[in-house]
Amino acid sequence: MPGMGEGLVVARGLRKSFGAFEAVRGIEVEVAEGEVFGFLGPNGAGKSSTMRMIACVSPRSAGELSVLGRDPDREGPRIRARLGVVPQLDNLDIELSVRENLEVYGRYFGLSRRHVRAKAGELLEFARLTDRADAKVDALSGGMKRRLTIARALVNDPDLLLLDEPTTGLDPQARHLLWERLYRLKREGVTQIITTHYMDEAEQLCDRLVVMDGGVIVAEGSPAGLIERWSTREVLELRFPSDAAPPVAELQPHAERVELLPDRVLLYVPHGERAQAAVHAAGVRPLSALVRRSSLEDVFLRLTGRTLVD
Question: Assuming Cys at both sites, which of 33, 46, 127, 240 could form a disulfide with 147, CB separation 3.0 to 4.6 Å?
Fold first, then answer.
């Protein structure tokens, strides 16, 4: 597509409608080769609709989209052959062994049996599943199944890996092991696009990301850049007795922004300890005080709100 840029994925004015409902409302996105790019947003923000268009399984309603330098409307099958897709829910074949899940999937891409057999061995080692190669999928833990799903998505040596909520439902140990595997892929130059609800995951893995809300992009940048732009260096968390109203008016002069939550008050400040000393000097006595660094979660909640979206 002339003029669409040099990225592996380039979207200009991209829209997706379902009848009268517009799920994606004219977004602009460019993902560079070798980059890990994230889509963050509450439920209904348009992340999944965007990912399905990039994966060439849902046609765009309007705008321009280029994936791997090709138009999904005209060359969807050729693009899909170069993609690795990790769906939100594992869709492994439970009737097959771990190794067979890799080998049978590889045959869908027209790869030779010899090549697929060798590739399966590499991917079993990558996923730390070599010792479970002959086990049935049902016998695997959730973390093992997730690693196998990611390994399967790599069987065709994809140019672009799409991961939809890759660590949802995993325990902390399994999440960190999966992060280590994805970071290894990043070092090897595999371009990745990730949707996630975990802010720490986005901070760990993403070079750049966009925050979506209501079908539009409300912020874009690196995790550190977004924190610098939309939050403060530190946050002072104060807790007060449940039967007393927090003295918000007295706290306002000591912070760039004050946020009242049901169980605590957040003071967004450049220096948490200085702010804590100033609050104490003003005669405010909380039950407890905690100084922490600002996080991507602070940015996310400021941009999209704290109201639960079903």
Answer: 127
Q: What 8-state DSSP symbol labels residue 111?
A: -
Nearest CA-CA partner of 257 in 140, 101, 248: 248
In the chain, which residue ranges form alpha helices assigned H by DSSP? 47-54, 72-80, 98-107, 113-126, 142-153, 172-187, 199-205, 223-230, 248-251, 272-281, 296-304
153 contacts 182 by C-beta, under 8 angstroms: no
Q: The pTM is what? A: 0.89
Which residues neighbour 204 within 8 Å (Cβ) at sequence distance 6 or greater?
Answer: 179, 183
Between CA 310 and CA 296 the distance in angstroms is: 22
Higher pLDDT: 309 or 56? It is 56
232-294 has which CATH code? 3.30.70
Ranges for all domains in the chain classified under CATH 3.30.70: 232-294
What residue type is 268 in one-letter code?
A: Y
Q: What is the DSSP string of 31-50?
A: E-TT-EEEEE--TTSSHHHH
Strand partners, 24: 16
Q: Is the pLDDT of residue 297 over 50?
A: yes
Which residues, other chains included, contact 262 with Cβ-Cβ below 8 Å and sequence gap of 6+? none
CA geometry: angle 279, 223, 64, nearest 5 deg: 135
**Assigned fold of 9-224:** Rossmann fold (3.40.50)
Work out the pLDDT band at 310, boundaries 50, 70, 90: very low
Residue range(s) of every CATH 3.40.50.300 domain in the chain: 9-224
